[in-house]
Design brief:
This protein is mainly β. A hairpin with a 4-residue loop joins β79 (1164-1171) and β80 (1176-1184).
């Protein structure tokens, strides 16, 4: 190759100018360029594929150029404003395929695409003649195109095979050389022409790619003889490098972007203080930041890829006899079993599938599967002798001959043919390629194949039903099978080995293992089957022999050592998995064993000792993490195991398994203990105790898969995020109870969270591209950073300042988080793009913050300079070794050890050689770019006068939004933009955004409602009076959570306009009042009645006894009705389900709590009630925001100064409100859900305002609200039931108070304890109850006693005054209702059970005590209500002696909610069946106030039809039928039958509703008597299968009843009375395939048949003739396919077919209704078309086509020819088709869920809309 030195002129050497002139393609020409005085090639075409020159040209007969120079010099000038491309194809020695380098100005960054590297040419480079120098070695070594081992020995491994120059450029020449030149040392042939007075550096330019300053080792290994000229050149180049670097740094400083912050400073004051958190230290210019090279090396692999390559081999040499060789992914590993040291054979690009070691141990061979499978032959020192391609696509087995002169392989080619090849290796060391000796396509399956130990020309193989001997002869392999007779049938031979006689150096027998557990002995010389031995109960998977012994391994997991007579095994060892491979050491004393579980062990035959060398995962490893407490490595794998490893010893220490159907997806290690947390696919999270290998805690607070789980560095909090982007923070010290829920409105693509190193800040992903920062102490959001990238992962640097964000497009962005006092600010520091070409999976920062390690999907580990000082090539070092994508990375030992894991190849441990000492670095934040932020503030603004400051605030608010909108203009070159504000100023501005627009006179009240001030307080002890035992209460201070209301500027302005135009803002959509006289009669939609009731929530009924109205809830509504007047409803509508309503004692305030979150909170609304005789009015006066998931209960204190609210089970919060000021005072939470809350009438300390209690599960919380506005509590646990040893849940409770002498109290309580001993070992006695039967009464009989409210209140005040005087003599009890039906009494202070009785066998749901009324009320789930009279119980003694004799009242359903009068004589009860009753205990009567439908999920409305125009018939599942009056929405009758109702129709002739049940049976209801009239039973054969539609009509005065089953059979139904029995008969009339619904029009004698999903409607004319066998006949009168010409504009038949095909891909549901006012017309809609059609079936044409506003669902018609159409968006559109101009009227319904039916009343403009269980009765006025 001396002809290539010092350089090669490629154009001259290969005649490129001639080729370009004669053989080029496109607009290519050879011209003279006078400016440089040289001939050039000009390419003018813009398309690369059509304008190019290919070198070498195929016509020359040259296959490749063969140029080996390290540097490629390209002399070119691109055509300005256009794109050019150049391709260079490199041939790598002993490696396929070619590597292509592509240079173009189309690219922005370097990018690797398989074996192609895209190199960008700067688009802003000066447009002048340029010499572009490409360093081939650099590009091959730094982008993963070559392994590191090849990169180190780069000399002579590559050659330039060919190149292409394409489009839009002028090119003068291309040169290759091993020397690096600059413009002063460059040979004259390569220089451009210079005129006098010109300087070369000014007229032309040299572009080093990469730049010189990133490759200081360019001349580290010169490839030519170093002469004095070369040394001079090197010195000049070094000088030019320094000069170039200085100019570059100077240019960079001059062009650095200066941030214009003038606009921000007008609004935001200068940040206080100039203290710098960090300051960047510049790196010495002479020191490359990534030193040395390579900066790390692979030290150890914990892994054995048994699934892809189960083979293991011993070293065959004396120095390697204690080493075993096996595969770990694409690496061959040689491991010393004594000291654990490993050597690695690197070179394969895919996982190794088979391997072997030569007998002398000098050579190793390994093969990989895939197209043209590669085989590599290695020397024992890890050098690759040869690498060659084979015709295999699956390489199965490989074996050396005894003298290693030949190699045999077997596998399948791309056509799945079994091919055996013998390769000659004698000249492999010189030629580097093997010789093909023989090749044979085998007709039989081959699993294992080996050379004979004594004859190189003889080969043996085994497979399915065959054992063969092969002979190498004339490049062929003739074979002979061993005669196996019946043993061959269905027998698969898996492996074999030779019995070698060392004395005479001969083979006597061969032993073959089989899948049926037998071992077959075959004589070597005679090739006959000698003996068959049963050695295992399952398949024999491995066989090996030594002198006198045979070792077998099996699918039954046993390894057995047999003597050769096989009478009895010598050693047996049971393994954890299947034995996959065996090999015997050269001394015959040790057996290496591989198992299917990834284990690799050594059995010492002499000592019977077994040692596990390696344990490994058998599937993909998803996550690794260094356990900070134990320093163990914890790994999570797809093989359903979590394992912990000792890194130094490479030993597995612990293992945890989990089920396949609930996979563990993420984990986090505790920094303070030997446990870790794991998140699972089911949404469960578990805490594992490592030392006990057990589950410490299990929680199920998430419904979807957990995506991330993180412990805080201080170990006090645990963060969990699920697939719905719901994050929860758990308190570790309180048994992992949730203390904060963060729910985002938009689900993020990735869910991730990370705590800062000091645990003070939590960073979360919000809306995929935003970063939220939360304060972990106050649990409030403090900052939000907006980016333009999809975020994937966070990491905090050790300095607690820098936050590193990884994105899905492979970049890392680093932000600086500055915390000064109460101000937190984010700065954009730097970023690195294109870190990994497919995806960035994980990264880690070295502890000294000098290096960054990243892993991705392309199997590379990359090491970066943490400061990202180097851009483009040379910015990182790349390390290969993994055979699949790397999923996780971590560092240990202060950064000196790097650990990576990904596929099943194992855990890779790297030794880091870089600097790991202390690295001081400081960052000047004021020099960095501020980042666009949106901050949440942990405080509320002070009250101020809006009249005086409104203009100033509006101006500031406008400035704030102007800045947000103008960020792009301020920093056009940055991807993340600025805003930071002083916290006090942000408070001022955000207070404007949070305000809800209200009427001016409401501003003050509304401001009070929104101003929630939580004053700090100091802990105090909760000490009730005269406790029998001391206890230490726990005091918590919780600041309330401020909910951020996101408002854009346009929304804000819109709200401000609405504030000016409207007098009030209600939280509901519709407020219904009767229309006053004199108002204009515009067509309006008015909901008259709503039928529905929330049975799943309690406290949802209130009763205003002074004014005679009551209210209840239904989904999102509160419905008000009068008790003794004609029925009329008033409806309030909300944006979420209403969970609780409450009426204060004065009956002037209504409190409404929601069960779900609306935007950011589940609010509590406060209304002022205006009661008068004619009308009921409400006015909202406050909105209380704190609860985030829902409100469970609301209670007032006795004086109604304070309001207590309880959150639902998702948040478990307790909140105290100042009801007078309408503001929050304080809050706390419990560890579990709260079932009930009651407020005590007494306090036991002057320092307390009031006391209350909550119960949940087996725990009681006793709370005290002190005068300094603190919440204190003491918790009491109910003991376990000794009989069952289970916890008993407390469902409800109440207080009972008795007064007595203080001195007697102690003795009394002691005597009670002696007399009434609470013993859990004894079962509770069931009390006897008196059954009370209630009689049904009429509403006319309703009577209400005069309440004398003022007297009652006065008596209460006197009673309270007396109680205060006798407080020292008060005994307070807690009566607990349990889920078991028992009641338990606890004495206050002692908090020990003193009494227990069983009241019922079912759960107690309600318990209420009124000592003023002398009653105890209990409710249970067994549809019963219990009342006990306690008036006679004057003291505690008599109360306990009463025996608790309750009166039992049986009800039609379980009580969901109730409200009683003050005297407990009567009450209103809402039951689980949906009905609301008034029950009088004195008269023992019940009155049905309101019949509704239950909202239970298992009961839904199935069908709805109108009968006689005033009776609405509804059917439900479970056989329920209800008939309603259309004008008053009152229930007429209700039946429930055993069988489901399939269909029904109305027989107008006999006035009966005919209900068809399952199996064809019929029941009828007469609408005059409203009772079940007859029951018919089906007789005969051939009836319908499953009826899907039915019609009734009178045709020619003859009634016709027709039913249609799902198979399309139409039957005539006849029911009659015969032989004193009611029977029915079905007569088959017609086949209507694909028809799903029938609609009749009797007066026209037609039936319409609607097909399913096709849009086809057929009109059938019905004819009756009694002389026929079947009197009814049908004629097809009209048929139309609405999908064929949906828009009415297609005349071509083919176009109609095409359109029909297009629409038929979507299921089209068709509905029609006959038009009574039009002759021969019906109206039709399709849910896939926004039209209302009018079809004249007599004329067979569409006469009406009306555009609709949305896709229709249902339609109905009244007598005024108004068509009512329900839309998919929930709106109602009213169309009057008889008008000349159709002006559709759009109305909004009150149903939030999907609408199922709409039924119109013909004679009136009334209609009903149903949705599952809710019915709305509307009137169109």
């Amino acid at each position: 190759m001396n002809w290539q030195h010092p350089f090669v002129d490629v154009f001259k050497q290969f005649g490129v100018f001639e080729i370009a002139h004669t053989q080029s393609k496109g607009q290519v020409s050879v011209v003279q360029d006078n400016s440089i005085g040289r001939k050039i090639i000009r390419l003018l075409g813009a398309i690369s594929a059509n304008n190019m020159v290919q070198i070498p040209d195929p016509c020359q007969g040259i296959k490749q150029l063969g140029l080996t120079g390290r540097y490629i010099y390209i002399e070119l000038i691109p055509i300005k404003g256009r794109y050019f491309t150049m391709h260079f194809d490199l041939q790598i020695k002993d490696r396929d395929p070619l590597i292509k380098l592509t240079v173009s100005n189309m690219y922005d960054v370097h990018k690797v695409q398989q074996s192609q590297l895209l190199i960008p040419y700067p688009k802003n480079a000066p447009n002048k003649w340029t010499i572009l120098i490409l360093d081939v070695e650099y590009f091959l070594g730094n982008f993963g195109l070559l392994p590191t081992s090849l990169y180190k020995s780069f000399k002579g491994i590559h050659s330039l095979k060919s190149f292409q120059i394409c489009s839009s450029m002028n090119i003068r020449g291309i040169y290759t050389s091993d020397n690096l030149y600059d413009w002063e040392t460059m040979p004259k042939q390569m220089l451009f022409k210079l005129a006098k007075g010109q300087k070369w550096s000014e007229e032309y330019q040299i572009a080093y790619w990469p730049n010189l300053d990133v490759q200081p080792h360019v001349f580290k290994q010169p490839l030519v003889e170093v002469t004095s000229d070369i040394l001079d050149n090197l010195q000049k180049i070094q000088e030019n490098k320094e000069k170039f670097k200085q100019e570059t740094q100077k240019s960079f400083k001059q062009n650095q972007i200066q941030h214009n912050t003038q606009q921000i400073e007008e609004l935001v004051k200068k940040r206080p203080g100039d203290q710098n958190i960090a300051q960047s230290k510049s790196v010495d210019a002479q020191d490359h930041p990534l030193q040395p090279y390579p900066i790390q090396q692979l030290e150890k692999i914990i892994g054995f890829t048994v699934n892809s390559c189960p083979d293991i081999k011993w070293g065959r040499q004396t120095e390697t006899q204690k080493q075993i060789i096996y595969a770990a992914g694409q690496l061959l590993v040689q491991s010393n079993i004594q000291d654990g040291k490993q050597k690695f054979f690197m070179g394969h690009s895919k996982a190794i599938s088979c391997l072997d070691v030569s007998k002398d141990g000098e050579w190793l061979v390994s093969g990989q599967s895939g197209k043209n499978a590669i085989i590599r032959i290695w020397k024992n020192n890890c050098d690759c002798l040869s690498a060659f391609a084979t015709p295999y696509s699956n390489l199965n087995y490989i074996s050396f001959s005894q003298d290693r002169k030949m190699l045999v392989t077997v596998g399948q080619d791309e056509h799945n043919r079994e091919i055996i090849i013998v390769w000659g290796l004698e000249k492999i060391e010189s030629n580097r390629k093997p010789i093909l000796f023989a090749k044979q396509t085998s007709s039989c399956n081959v699993i294992a194949i080996k050379f004979s130990p004594v004859d190189n020309n003889r080969i043996l193989s085994c497979g399915h039903e065959n054992i063969r001997f092969w002979r190498i002869k004339d490049e062929h392999l003739p074979g002979a099978s061993v005669v196996l007779n019946h043993h061959a049938r269905n027998t698969t031979f898996t492996n074999f080995d030779f019995e070698f006689n060392y004395e005479d150096q001969n083979v006597s027998n061969i032993y073959f293992g089989s899948k049926n557990g037998y071992l077959f002995q075959v004589a070597y010389q005679s090739q006959k089957l000698m003996q068959v031995y049963k050695v295992h109960n399952d398949a024999v998977t491995a066989v090996c022999l030594s002198a006198g012994f045979c070792i077998t391994g099996s699918l039954d997991q046993f390894l057995r050592v047999w003597p050769l007579d096989f009478n009895e095994f010598y050693i047996e060892a049971k393994h954890e998995g299947i034995i996959t491979s065996l090999d015997i050491s050269i001394d015959g004393l040790q057996v290496a064993c591989g198992t299917s579980t990834g284990g690799l062990g050594i059995l010492d035959i002499s000592s019977h000792h077994y040692k596990t060398v390696i344990r490994s995962h058998t599937n993909v490893i998803n996550q690794i993490q260094i356990h900070p407490f134990s320093k163990l490595l914890i790994t999570l794998s797809e093989d359903c195991t979590i394992r912990l490893w000792d890194i130094e010893k490479s030993d597995q220490v612990y293992e945890f398994t989990f089920p396949q159907d609930d996979k563990c997806v993420c984990l986090s290690s505790s920094p303070i203990g030997m446990y870790f947390a794991a998140g699972f696919k089911s949404g469960v999270h578990r805490i594992f105790d490592i030392e006990q290998t057990s589950i410490l805690f299990e929680g199920k607070y998430h419904d979807l898969e957990i995506k991330c789980i993180q412990y805080s560095p201080n170990g006090q909090q645990l963060l969990i995020g699920d697939a719905k982007s719901i994050y929860k923070i758990y308190d570790v010290n309180r048994d992992y109870q949730p203390i904060k829920t963060i729910q985002h409105s938009i689900q993020s693509q990735n869910v991730y969270g990370q705590f800062s190193k000091d645990s003070a800040i939590l960073s979360l992903i919000e809306n995929s591209a935003n970063i939220e920062l939360w304060d972990t102490s106050s649990l409030q959001q403090i900052l939000k950073i907006q980016t333009r990238f999809n975020l994937k992962i966070f990491k905090w640097a050790e300095n607690n300042v820098e936050l590193l964000c990884g994105t899905t497009d492979g970049r890392i962005i680093i932000y600086g988080i500055e915390r000064i006092n109460e101000t937190i600010t984010a700065y954009y520091l730097r970023e690195q793009t294109f870190m990994h070409k497919q995806s960035l999976n994980d990264f880690v920062v070295s502890p000294n913050m000098k290096y960054l390690f990243s892993v991705g999907a392309e199997q590379y580990l990359k090491v970066w300079d943490y400061e990202f000082q180097i851009k483009g090539p040379g910015s990182c070092q790349v390390f290969i070794g993994h055979s699949s994508q790397i999923n996780s990375i971590d560092c240990a030992d202060n950064g000196s050890t790097i650990i990576t894991a990904g596929g099943d190849e194992g855990i890779f441990i790297w030794k880091f050689l870089g600097y790991t000492g202390k690295n001081e670095r400081l960052i000047k934040m004021e020099q960095e770019q501020l980042v666009q932020q949106c901050t949440k503030i942990d405080m509320q603004p002070d009250q101020f006068d809006e009249q005086e400051q409104q203009d100033e605030q509006n101006e500031k608010l406008d400035d704030y939004y102007d800045l947000q909108e103008n960020n792009e203009n301020i920093h056009p070159n940055k991807e993340a933009h600025l805003h930071t504000f002083q916290q006090s100023q942000l408070v001022e501005m955000f207070s404007l955004v949070r305000q809800l627009p209200q009427k001016e006179e409401q501003d003050e009240d509304q401001g009070l409602a929104n101003k929630n001030v939580n004053t700090p307080f100091k802990p105090d002890h909760f000490k009730p009076s005269r406790l029998q035992q001391e206890f230490k209460p726990i005091t918590f201070e919780f600041e309330r959570q401020i909910l951020n209301r996101k408002r854009s500027r346009s929304q804000l302005k819109k709200q401000q306009n609405r504030q000016q135009n409207s007098s009030t803002q209600l939280p509901f959509r519709q407020y219904i009042v009767p229309q006053l006289k004199g108002q204009s009669q515009q067509p309006t939609l008015q909901c008259k009645y709503m039928i529905g009731y929330n049975t799943k929530t309690h406290d949802n009924i209130i009763w205003c006894q002074s004014y005679g109205w009551y209210a209840y809830t239904s989904q999102n509504y509160v419905i008000f009705e009068k008790l003794q007047q004609e029925r009329e409803q008033l409806i309030l509508s909300f944006n979420a389900i209403v969970s609780v309503i409450y009426l204060d004692k004065t009956e002037k305030h209504l409190i409404v709590g929601l069960a779900q979150k609306v935007q950011d909170a589940a609010p509590i609304y406060v209304y002022e009630i205006q009661n008068n005789a004619s009308q009921l009015n409400f006015k909202q006066i406050a909105q209380l925001n704190f609860h985030t998931q829902g409100v469970h209960q609301i209670l007032f204190t006795e004086d109604e100064k304070y309001l207590v609210s309880v959150g639902n089970g998702k948040e478990c919060t307790v909140v105290i409100w100042d009801f007078t000021a309408k503001k929050l005072i304080t809050s706390s939470y419990t560890l579990d859900r709260i079932n009930d809350i009651k407020i005590s009438k007494y306090t036991f300390s002057k320092e307390r305002i009031f006391e209350f209690a909550t119960v949940g599960r087996d725990q009681i919380y006793l709370w005290a609200f002190t005068k300094d506005h603190k919440l204190e509590y003491y918790d009491v646990f109910l003991p376990k039931n000794i009989n069952t040893n289970e916890l008993e849940e407390i469902t409800t409770f109440d207080y009972v108070v008795y007064e007595g002498n203080k001195n007697k109290q102690t003795s009394q309580s002691l005597s009670l304890s002696q007399r009434v001993s609470f013993d859990n070992s004894q079962q509770s006695q069931t009390v006897k109850t008196e059954e009370i039967l209630l009689e049904e009464g009429s509403k006319d009989q309703l009577s209400f006693p005069q309440l004398q409210q003022e007297l009652t209140q006065e008596s209460m005040k006197q009673q309270q005054l007396q109680s205060q005087q006798n407080k020292s003599q008060t005994i307070q009890l807690l009566i607990l209702g349990l889920k078991t039906g028992d009641i338990v009494i606890l004495k206050y202070g002692e908090f020990k059970p003193i009494y227990r009785k069983q009241i019922t066998n079912a759960e107690i749901t309600y318990l209420k005590v009124s000592q003023a009324a002398g009653k105890i009320i209990l409710g249970s789930t067994e549809n019963s209500f219990f009342v006990m009279d306690i008036k006679s119980n004057l003291n505690l003694q008599s109360f306990l002696d009463s025996g608790f004799a309750f009166q039992r009242i049986q009800l039609p359903g379980m009580v969901s909610s109730y409200v009683l009068d003050p005297f407990y004589t009567q009450g209103i009860f809402g039951l689980s069946n949906g009905n609301i009753y008034l029950i009088s205990f004195t008269t023992k009567q019940y009155f049905l106030l309101n019949a509704t439908n239950s909202d239970q999920s298992e009961i839904e409305i199935k069908q709805c039809k109108l009968v006689e125009d005033n009776i609405l018939v509804t059917t439900f599942n479970q056989g329920i039928v209800k008939l309603w009056r259309m004008d008053t929405a009152e229930l007429l009758v209700e039946y429930q039958w055993e069988k489901e109702i399939v269909q029904f129709f109305y027989d107008a002739q006999i006035k009966q509703i005919v209900f068809i049940q399952e199996f064809g049976q019929i029941k009828t209801i007469n609408i005059d008597r409203l009772d079940v009239y007859d029951q018919y039973y089906h007789i005969g054969k051939g009836g319908p299968d499953k009826i899907i539609s039915c019609v009734f009509g009178i045709f020619d005065s003859i009634p016709g009843k027709f039913v249609l089953d799902e198979s399309g059979q139409l039957f005539f139904l006849e029911h009659l009375y015969k032989n004193q029995e009611y029977i029915i008969r079905y007569i088959k009339a017609l086949e209507l395939p694909n028809v799903i619904q029938l609609v009749e029009q009797c007066e026209k004698r037609v039936i319409f048949a609607i097909e399913q999903d096709t849009g086809v409607v057929s009109t059938l004319q019905v004819d009756y003739n009694s002389t026929r066998q079947y009197p009814f006949a049908f004629t097809l009168f009209d048929q139309i396919n609405f999908l064929a010409n949906p828009h009415g504009n297609l005349d071509n038949e083919q176009s109609q077919k095409d359109t029909q095909t297009l629409y038929s891909s979507v299921d089209a549901q068709t509905q029609i209704i006959p038009a009574q006012g039009f002759d021969n017309v019906y109206f039709a809609i399709l849910n896939t078309l926004q039209y209302l059609y009018g079809r004249n079936y007599n004329k067979k044409q569409i006469i009406l086509l009306v555009n609709l506003n949305d896709f229709p669902l249902y339609l109905s018609l009244d007598n005024n020819l108004k068509v009512y159409i329900v839309m998919q968006n929930g709106s109602l559109e009213v169309v009057q088709p008889n008008e000349s101009v159709n002006q559709n009227q759009l109305h909004i319904t009150q149903l939030n869920s999907q609408i199922d039916h709409i039924i119109c009343q013909k004679r009136k403009s009334n209609f009903v809309i149903t949705s599952k269980t809710i019915m709305n009765f509307y009137q169109y006025i």
